[in-house]
């Protein structure tokens, strides 16, 4: 897997003191962003934990803030940034952040505009219903794999909680699914690769890889294809003969 340029994280700013330096449109945009996330603006670097700089600055000035223990974002200067601000699709508590490592804010904005059309406004309500049901689901499905299969089935395309569909009664649908038996036989699927390019995978194949608990693959299967699977999936280079619980996907290259 090629290294990421940055690690995407979501920072809880609620109640945190944030230093904002600068005036004008760029500073005002940062102020709105900080306040919408619950941050508290301060002029005191000693009280802050992170800093946003919206004016001309120098590496020495940024280094001085580093010496005070602050992580720093400088508008339009990715070379001076400890972190960058992504384009955001807000369906709180669902947030989709698009970053380009400072390469192009316009590209990030263009992607955000496309995603705004795709993601329904009701997505936040769906997420809140899922969060409210977590304790009930944990009681009914005590194992992590059982819970993962439960949510995978409900959130699959066309299923009861399809996040791209209209789900007006999510809580009732979750309760109805919990009332069903959790018997789940081991499931196995084989994917025969016709290309080393992961973009040539079909939509069904991508979905199988994203759901699989176990990936069995030959040594000649490209890493770029394996990277389309879940990061926490078990990866085996040969079949063990044991029947593994959950969904197993066998990846083979076309002869």
Could you give a short description of this structure?
The protein has 255 residues and is of the alpha/beta class. Helix content is 34%, strand content 18%.
The structural domain count equals: 3
Relevant CATH superfamily of the largest domain: BRCT domain
CATH domain class of the largest domain:
Alpha Beta
Distance between the termini: 25 Å
The share of residues in helices is: 25-40%
Q: What's the shape?
A: globular
Mean pLDDT: 90
The multimeric state of the shown protein is single chain
Low-confidence segments: none
| Helix/strand/pairing category | alpha/beta
Question: Taking Cα atoms only, what radius of gyration do you get, to the nearest Å?
Answer: 23 Å
Number of helices: 8
Topology, number of strands? 10
Q: Please state roughly what percent of the residues sit in beta strands, choosing from under 5%, 5-15%, 15-25%, 25-35%, 35-45% or over 45%.
A: 15-25%
The biggest sheet, with number of strands, parallel, antiparallel or mixed sense and barrel status, is:
4 strands, parallel
CATH topology of the largest domain: Rossmann fold
